[in-house]
From TrEMBL:
Name this protein carries in UniProt: D-glutamate cyclase-like C-terminal domain-containing protein
Start and end residues of each D-glutamate cyclase-like C-terminal domain: 56-366
UniProt-recorded Gene Ontology molecular function terms: D-glutamate cyclase activity
Matching Gene3D superfamilies: TON_0340
Length: 367
């Protein structure tokens, strides 16, 4: 009863599963995934592309800091998040974790590189992208974005926004045109290594210190997004206290040190758990590249109208993170006093792990 076809090309889609397609190469075998319940939205991808994205998810799922994050892992979340992002025309990214409350700036250097990696591929895919962050960190982020453009990491500057709560409907007004849920300004929200609100309304770093005085209430945008049909959200984290990790909060409370206090209470539709949050950003960029070059997904995305976009393949490829780009960006962050998460050192390290042979190796594996 649920089938349709169209010609030319005779694509045929049905609700009955046919497993008898093994003779074809996996790049021609379509797989269907549900990426939204409200409204109901499915997407299609080749078995080969899905498998590659699954490999990316496995690569970033290791736990170099031995924090117990493997217990938070959910399968297929990277694939579903990226299918959803692939259908979005406009994306809002947020990052910023002011864990070093005794330093200025208090930000750590996990988050911004991942956020910019996602922004770079979104620009290459000709989607609208903006970043929302804390008012007090606007200047710092503006400088980082300007330098990312000079370094060739971004094609052009990403608009920088801040969000303040002024009334009960501030978040709705921010996310939509004149507060109309039928006219969202962003179709997908991504939080990567963003301080997330705990059940008691406070924001905690991994050591259980309340840093609420340094954090703007950007969580409200993710809560409001749940009420706007067609707007989906993704949270990327590595410790359970990041925005979006509310989806796995029970596992955080059980398996992560101080989890009962620090666990973020705010859910995202998709939760990507990585050993280091930046890796999650790199993996999203690579997964979006895989989807864009997947003929089955590309055709579905275009609703089979027009021609494949594959002529832009080199532009997409050149926008992906690389060891040299990430090295330059990390040096820029160090120069601006943005420190490593675990140790607060101003070295070439993120989350206490050295850039060379840890982060550089991960980037190479993902690519």
């Amino acid at each position: 009863p649920l089938a349709f076809t169209h010609s030319p090309g005779c694509m045929f889609i049905t609700d009955l599963k046919n497993d008898n397609v093994t003779v074809r190469p996996p790049r021609e075998v379509p797989q269907v995934y549900c990426i939204s319940q409200d409204p109901l939205h499915y997407s299609i991808v080749s078995a080969e592309a899905a498998e590659k994205i699954e490999t990316l998810e496995t690569l970033i799922g290791i736990d170099p800091g031995d924090r117990g994050i493997t217990h938070l892992h959910r399968r297929h979340e990277l694939l579903k998040a990226c299918l959803s992002i692939s259908h979005a025309q406009s994306v809002l990214i947020t990052t910023g974790f002011p864990t070093h409350f005794t330093y200025e700036p208090p930000e750590e250097n996990d988050g911004p590189p991942g956020a910019l990696a996602i922004a770079a591929i979104l620009q290459a895919l000709e989607k609208e992208v903006a970043i929302v962050t804390d008012q007090r960190a606007m200047n710092l982020n503006k400088k980082i974005i300007e330098e990312a453009v000079q370094l060739g990491i971004l094609k052009r500057p990403v608009p920088l926004l801040s969000y303040q709560r002024e009334s009960a409907d501030s978040a709705l007004m921010f996310l939509t045109e004149k507060g109309n849920p039928g006219r969202p300004r962003f179709q997908h929200l991504i939080a990567i290594e963003r301080a997330g609100m705990a059940a008691d309304g406070n924001y905690y770093n991994a050591r259980k210190v309340n840093i609420k005085h340094l954090v703007d209430p950007i969580d409200e945008l993710f809560l409001a997004a749940q009420t706007i049909p067609g707007v989906t959200t993704t949270g990327v984290g590595d410790g359970g206290n990041e925005l979006g990790m509310g989806k796995v909060k029970d596992a955080v409370k059980k398996h992560i040190k101080n989890g009962d206090v620090i666990a973020c209470d705010v859910e995202a539709d998709f939760t990507i758990v990585a050993g280091v949050s930046n890796w999650g950003g790199y993996a999203i960029a690579c997964a979006l590249y895989i989807l864009s070059t997947c003929e089955i997904h590309d055709r579905y995305l275009r609703k089979a109208v027009g021609f494949p976009q594959l002529s832009k393949k080199m532009v997409w490829l050149s926008s992906l993170p690389s060891v040299s780009k990430e090295e330059k960006l990390l040096k820029t962050l160090v120069r601006h006093g943005v420190r490593s998460g675990k140790t607060a050192s101003l070295e070439m390290e993120v989350d206490g792990l050295p850039f060379y042979n840890t982060h550089s190796l991960m980037i190479e594996k993902l690519l």
